[in-house]
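Attaching the record inline, Q. Sequence:
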Amino acid sequence: MQNKNIVERLKKGEIIHPTDPEYYMINDIVNRTIERSQKLNNATDIHQVRDYIGEITGVTIDESTTIFPPFYTNFGKFITLGKNIFINHACSFLDMGGITIEDDVLIGPKVNLITENHPLDPKDRRALITKPILVKKGAWIGAGATILPGITIGENAVVAAGAVVSEDVPDDTVVGGVPAKIIKSIY
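Structure, as predicted:
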């Protein structure tokens, strides 16, 4: 028997197969998140949105943080939000690996933060592999950017609109393109 339950193993980045006897725990959280997301995305003001996201994450969201609906997440329990964050419309956070967004971060519309992946071997392709994403203080992620599993966006860094970030972004730099490359230093 495993020492950790499947949710702990998921966040640790262990390979999780859909045949795992505890897989129902993931589905239970996903189903709960889907139900609350319906309410979130029908909210009529930013205070309601903040409250529903707090229900999904299990943590009170600071009043200085603003999130515009629609907002999508498949799990929600592994999202950690700091203070004074702005998340624009139609962002998608696949957070089974953990997403941490520090203070003073700006996230443009239609940004995707993806912490989940699958093994390359076709026999194991349905299994999950997760790696966390960290967005450090003061970063700005432009519209339509995609941040892939295991990436850290550095402090005060800027990710250009439409970029696909597959490598860590150093502090105080601007990255852009597919795959994203350093364009320039801010200072």
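Residues 34 and 74 are 7 Å apart (CA to CA). The longest helix spans residues 23-40.

More tomorrow.
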